[in-house]
Amino acid sequence: MNDVRTIVQKLCDGADITRDEIIFLLNNRDKDTADLLAEKASAVSKGIYGNKVYIRGLIEFTNYCKNDCYYCGIRYSNKNASRYRLSEEEITGCASCGYDLGFRTIVLQGGEDPFFTDEKIIRIVREIKREHPDVAVTLSIGEKSHESYKAFYDAGVDRYLLRHETADHSHYAKLHPSSLSAANRQRCLRDLKEIGYQTGAGFMVGSPYQTYENIADDLLFLRDLDPAMIGIGPFIPHKDTPFADRPQGSLELTLFLLSMIRLMIPEVLLPATTALGTIDPRGRELGILAGANVVMPNLSPVGVRKKYALYDNKICTGEEAAECMNCLAGRLRNIGYEIAVDRGDNIKYKKT
Ligand code: 5AD
Ligand code: FES
Fold first, then answer.
1. Is the CB of 328 within 6 Å of ligand 2?
2. What's the domain range around 255?
3. Does the residue 18 lie in any domain?
4. How many domains does the chain fold into?
5. Is residue 170 domain-resident?
6. Residue 176: nearest ligand to its CA?
7. The whole model's pTM is what?
């Protein structure tokens, strides 16, 4: 029978729920259901990862981008964006600062910037690995060829983050210019998994034109892909984009989806994202309490942080990495969690 309690029970039992059931649950959810799911989801997370929250240090090394995604503040057409690139020395320097603060995962994230050729990326990765052999290096630099992904992997890159953005091809086309396609995005994700990366996918909650049917397809896509990490956060408008006047995604729905994802894919690494912390002062804590188990503080030099503005009002753009670490440690302690100082591999994808 299609009632909310039956569907919640299926989720809690780890049984596969159908597309129709997901849509029904989203349409009929209420506060009690959300509280129950959050309680079950955080218990599942604790059962696998304990009360530890994994940290990933994000180095936003270029905000140049050749793409023109309609939602993103660093899109090519945004002439108001003040563009920057960190030097190779600045990038490896940030990684070392992060190492000293306890980070054992470094994420190199940037726009799709042709200045950073494969050769340059590989040189940077090799240098970080040479200085800190126990660090997991993650790339988040967009759509590349199979050949490039393979070359990065062979150079020692462990993980790759590439949100699928939306599984539905026509929804994808409403968020991106025709030079980009859901098909190529999904090809990239399949390539990454096949090569052996611990792969991250994900989507924005409340992106323009998104329906509950789209979200159901996203969840089913993720269940099928079975990535090591899933990044979801609310859509937040950026004033210099075509979506400037669109409403932001909801805190409540983002938390609900975090809980659903934790129950559907129990061992997945699930960040409480910066975007979630941006729409609510306690967003990241609420994310952890809903089943998330990762936070991704910024290691970029404070001087460039405001410039990596995918959306408006991003938090932590004035704080040094060490300040964020203190702040986060306090916030997590308040809710009974602590920061883990290890690579924080997905238990299922951990290399032995
Ligand atoms: N609001 C929220 N998230 C955004 N992203 C890009 N622009 C926005 C925005 N305006 C997300 C995309 C991208 C990730 C790096 O950030 O999902 O994959
Ligand atoms: Fe950056 Fe709190 S985490 S200021």
1. yes
2. 53-340
3. no
4. 1
5. yes
6. 1
7. 0.98
